[in-house]
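Sorry to interrupt, but I need a hand with the structure work. Can you supply me with one protein entry, sequence and fold together? No commentary is needed, just the two lines. Leave the record below and I will have a look.
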Amino acid sequence: MLTQLKTPGAFIEEVSKFPPSVAQVETAIPVFIGLTEKATRKVDGDLLESLVRITSLLEYETLFGGANKETLELKDDAVNGLTLVTPDTKFLMPYAMQMYFANGGGPCYIISIGDFEDTSDSSALKSRIETCLEAVSREDEITLLVFPDATKTLNEGDFYGMYQIALDQANELKDRFVIIDTYKGNSTELTQLIEEGPSNNTISNLRDSIPGDKYGAAYFPHVKTILNYAYDETAAITHTGTGYNYSAEETLLNNLIAEINADTAGDDLEENRTALLAIFETINETYDFPFDLTPYIDATTSAELVAAYFNNVIDAGGFSSDNLGALSGQKLEDLKGTTVYNEIQALINADPVVLPPSAAMAGVYAKVDSTRGVWKAPANVGLNYVVGPTEKVNNTQQDGLNVDVNAGKSINVIRTFTGKGTLVWGARTLDGNSNEWRYISVRRFFNMVEESVKKASERFVFDSNDANTWIKVKGMIENFLNTQWRAGALAGATPEDAYFVSVGLDETMSAQDILEGRMIVEIGMAAVRPAEFIILRFSHKLQES
């Protein structure tokens, strides 16, 4: 109503006729935290440890640079000829961003914790990540937490400690979700990763190190991509010949000979014998020489005999003290136009970048949310830019990954299927034994509804706590849930079957609640759940005519 009128004239009064409404919040806005080539908008390093929103790969490369230029390392193989040594790089962020956008990703946030020149150890980097997560907690738009290069930059203890901190934040804020990688994902024996046992057991380590949590989901294994490592064409090539470089063993042996000469009383005989055996076996196993070690191991008191045996091994194997190949010291740019340059390029193209799947999965979440809805499980979806997983997991092996009977810490598997490509074949959270929060889609749908309704309800704070306000709030929420039901997010033939909203005196509140300023609204939703197991039952039918 207008204030009291005192001056003659015409006045305008606008009357609101539409009820308040709930606006749906974003569901797939990830933050990527890791090392980048640079972090510069205007002044060098001005974006370090800062939360930066981007919308495209081009914008990322403009602000944070591209991939690290690796030094080319070649090796001669007696069987395969010239081979490429895959770089053990820890700078995975640029490749991860390519995977994110290729798989449907959109707007996201980047936090650079350092550049490629950073030599900080695992503990220091984890400390920076913790600091950055504090900044992330203050940004309301973020809904996914991703650490694409942590498998390379952190040791295993810090790696899982970082995820615990991220999960704690998700539980506290209740509006975000953590996509978790396994620390290892390219073993030679899958059973080593699944069965309980030694410390190199990736799955057991994850389950032992991270609590069962409805706000996180883990994926295994890592994926081989169509991306190739970037190389510095101006750097000198390292080329190892077919001979074995024994210089390290020679140094150890010379030190051992000195100890043998000094040990005239033979007090350290057993210790010297063990050290000698280790040196010789390193050489013998490398080239599979069937030498009899017994006479030499038993005569460790003779330094001359030890040295003679070592020289015999070197002569028999044709080993070299420098072991340099023909291309060592040359630059790739100087080889352009030659046959060997084309051969090297073919080797580079055949060597895929291997990445943990979290960045690609963030893109899948975004794509599924935009095309189907956040209530659709991000599974049975093909991965773009992926040649295949590093491990081929079969049904029997997935049994122990998908269902954890002890703690419910399910691991979602990425698998290849003939004629279908590489698919995400799991949709469970780390709370897989819970009937309420077993599925990723259910948890993330509730996140969306809770956050959307919370924001819309803030306009009623300090309004009169009476029936007029209650009916507005109830109608607003019911209209929003009706929209979700019509879109397919809620199960039920009628709205009454799909959801309910209750608010009112003696319904959700007592008179004491009203006196204490509380307005309590109860909301129930029958969220749709994925058909994880489709069972087709067949039987014989008796002939009737």
